[in-house]
Amino acid sequence: RKLQANADEGAVDPPKVEDKIGAVPNGLQTDSDVVKRESESISKRSLRSNAEKFEFQAEVSRLMDIIINSLYSNKDIFLREIISNASDALDKIRFLSLVDKEVLGEGDTAKLEIQIKLDKEKKILSIRDRGIGMTKEDLIKNLGTIAKSGTSAFVEKMQTSGDLNLIGQFGVGFYSVYLVADYVEVISKHNDDKQYVWESKADGAFAISEDTWNEPLGRGTEIKLHLREEAGEYLEESKLKDLVKKYSEFINFPIHLWASKEVDVEVTSDEDETSDEETSKSSTSEEGEDEDTEKSEDEETEKKPKTKKAKETTYEWELLNDVKAIWLRSPKDVTDEEYTKFYQSLVKEFGDEKPMSWTHFTAEGDVEFKAVLFVPPKAPHDLYESYYNTNKANLKLYVRRVFISDEFDELLPKYLSFLKGLVDSDTLPLNVSREMLQQHSSLKTIKKKLIRKALDMIRKIAEEDPDESSDKDKTEVDTSSDDDEKKGQYTKFWNEFGKSIKLGIVEDATNRNRLAKLLRFESTKSDGKLTSLDQYISRMKPGQKDIFYITGTNKEQLEKSPFLERLKKKNYEVIFFTDPVDEYLMQYLMDYEDKKFQNVSKEGLKLERDSKTKELKETFKELTKWWKGALASENVDDVKISNRLDNTPCVVVTSKFGWSANMERIMQSQTLSDASKQGYMRGKRVLEINPRHPIIKELRERVANDPEGESLKQTAYLIYQTALMESGFSLNDPKDFANRIYSSVKSSLNINPDAAIEEEEEVEEPEAENEAKEDAGASKVEAEPVEDEEDTEPSDVHDEL
Ligand SMILES: Nc1ncnc2c1ncn2[C@@H]1O[C@H](COP(=O)(O)OP(=O)(O)OP(=O)(O)O)[C@@H](O)[C@H]1O
C-alpha cells in the first residue's frame, strides 16, 4: 500500500507547560491533560516549569533581541541556516561512521537525510535531521551559554549596517529561527546521551528537560518552530520548496518534505447521499459499482453499497534537492550562475556578491582529486590578523564525496588562505583518523597542484582584464560585454589580496617567480596606475641592467626623494614600494628574469658611467677624508662621491644587506622588536656627496684652507644630520640637531653666539592673606555679571562679550 497518511499523522503535539507539570509520568497523563494542552494558546505558553532553566550568555541575549526586533524583511534565511546546521550534523556522523560503522545505527536511523514537516493547524514547522545530535551538555553550550567568537562581531555589525543575511558567516545562524518563531524547541538525541528538549521564547532564558513524551528520534535533531502569526507563509509547501531550491541547492544530503497530494480515491457511499451528478460523471465509478455489486451479493444481501470518486489528501516524502555534487559534474556543464550560487553556499554569503574568479578541475595521475577554487570578491577584514599564528584554512576536504574537514591547513599555504573552495580526493584513505590523514603523503601532491592551479587562475584574472593588456592589445576595437565585466578586475584583486601575493613571495621559494609575475606596484612612469615587472622590463633603457626601486611611507614623499634625482633626469623608471611588507618582500626577491633589484637608497647603484667620476674622486679626496674624520663619532662608514644626486648636496645611503632607512623606521615602530638586534641589523651608512653642488664645492675650498676650523666642522655635521633626515632616517638626538640649527640661524642673523637669554623678572609671591582676599574678590567679580545680566541691556551684554 502507498505511503499515506492524513494531515495529522506524524505531527506531534507541541509540548506545553502542562506536559510536565507535577512531573506526571508520560504514560499516566489523562485525557483532560491533553485537552488542556490543546486549548492553550501560543501567547500563554511558558517554558516547562520543572525543566532546568538557564540564562543566555549576555551577548547571545543581545543577539536574540536584535533578531526578534529586526525589521529585516528577508526572513527566509532562517531555513537555510537550519538546513545548513542539519547538513553539518550529518557530515559529522558520516565522518565518524568511517571509522566505526556502528555509530550510524540501523533502519531509518541510519538514513542520512533531512526531513521537513508542517503542521498548519498548530503553526509548527519542523526540520529534522539524522545527524550527530546534541547531548544535554552540547545543547547547553551550543545553544546559548557559550558565545561564539562571531557573536559580538555580529551584534556590532548589526548595530551599524545591519545585514542579517550575513548571520551564517558569524557562526550564529541558529538564532535566525527567531525571525519567524516566537517559541522554539530543539529535540535532540546524541548516541552518548538520552533525548533532550531545549526550548526558549528568546526572552533571556532557555530550558532543558529530558524528553519522555516526544517520538524517539533514534539519533539526530528536530527543530520545531512555533511560527509567529505573521510568518504563516512558511506553512505553505510551495514556499518551502522554493526556499530549499533557492538556498539549499548544494546540500549533499537528501532534503525531504512531507508533502500533500490530492488523489482521487473511490469511497463507498450510501445511495441516498450520492448526488446524481457524481454517479453519472465517471465510468470508473460505474465499474466500481459493478465490482461492489458482486461483492455485496457475496457478503451482504440486504443493501447494495455504492462507490464514488472523491478527493483525498495523502502525504508522502518528496525529495526537494538534487544531491549530485557540483564538483563531480563536468565544468562545461556548470553555468556561471551555478558556480556563483555554489560559492555563496560555501561561504554562507547570500548577497549579490559574485566570486572574482574560479577554477574547477580534475587532477589525474598518482593522486586523483577534483577541486573547485574561488577567489572571493573581498578580503575578510581580519585576513592578516595574527597571520602566522592562526589557522584560517578555507578549503573543505572531501574523500570520495564524504566531508572530512574544513580545518586542514595542509591543503593550501598560508598566503593562499584567502581562497575558498573544496577538494574531493579519491586517493586519500577514508577510514583513518583526521590526524593520520593530515600526514598522508598524497596531501603534498594535492597541495602542489592546488597552488599551481590557484596561481594560474589569478594570472588569468590579469590576462583577461582589458586594463592590464599592453597598448598593442588596446587598439583592438572589438570589446565585448565580457570585457566590460573583466575590466579593472585585476586592480580589484590586487587591492584586496596583493599583500597575500607578497607574502607568497616571502614564503614560497618554489613559486617565487610565478608570484613575482603577479606583483603590481606604482612607479615613476606608471602614471598613477599599477604596473607589473614585465611591463617595467619592457620599458627598461638600453643598457639598463637592474630593476630600480625605492621604499618608503608613501608615493608622494618618495617622488620628492633626493635618491631619484638623477635617475629621473636620466629617464630611468623607479618602482615605489610603500607597504611595510615590501621591505620583507625585497629581502627575498633578489632578481626577476635575470635582472637584479637595486634599492636606489642603498649602495651599489650603477648608472651609465660619468666620464669625470675618477677625476672628481681625486679632487674631492681631501674633503671626503676630512668629513669622514669629522663624523667619526657617528658610525659613518664612508664619505663618497654620489652618482645619484642632482640638486641635493648629499644623502645618506645604506649598505646593500643592512636595513634601509625605511626598514629601520618599520622596525622601530614594532613594539616588540628587540633594540639590541636593531643595532646589529642597521645598515652601515655612507654619506654621498654631490660634487656639483655649491655647498659641497664651498666646503671643499674651506677644508683646503682651514681643515681644523671648529665652525666648519659644525657646519659639516649639520649638513650630515640634514642629509640623514632627508634620506628617511630618524635622528638619535633631535635636541642636538635643533641647537645646531639655532646657532646657524644666530650667525645668519648676526647675533653673537654667546648672546645671553634675557632673565625672567622675578614676580614677588603675594602673601597668603592677600591671596585669600584676592580669591574672594575674584569670585565676586565673576558672580557680578551674572547678577547684573537681567538688568543689563542685551546689546551691552553683546558688547561685553
Ligand atoms: N541540527 C543540529 N545538529 C547538531 N548540532 C547542531 C544542530 N544545529 C546546531 N547545532 C549546534 O549548535 C551550534 C550553533 O549553531 P549555529 O548555527 O548558531 O552556529 P554554527 O552552525 O556553528 O555556524 P553557522 O551558523 O555558520 O552554521 C553548532 O555549531 C552546532 O554545534
TrEMBL record:
Domain of life: Eukaryota
Listed Pfam families: HATPase_c_3, HSP90
InterPro entries the UniProt entry points to: HATPase_C_sf (IPR036890), HATPase_dom (IPR003594), Heat_shock_protein_90_CS (IPR019805), HSP90_C (IPR037196), Hsp90_fam (IPR001404), Hsp90_N (IPR020575), Ribosomal_Su5_D2-typ_SF (IPR020568)
Family, per entry: Belongs to the heat shock protein 90 family.
Keyword set includes Chaperone: yes
Compositional bias annotation for Basic and acidic residues: 462-477, 770-783
Protein name, per record: Endoplasmin homolog
Classification lineage: Eukaryota, Viridiplantae, Streptophyta, Embryophyta, Tracheophyta
Organism of provenance: Rubroshorea leprosula
Major localization listed first in the record, in broad terms: endoplasmic reticulum
Cellular compartments per GO CC: endoplasmic reticulum lumen
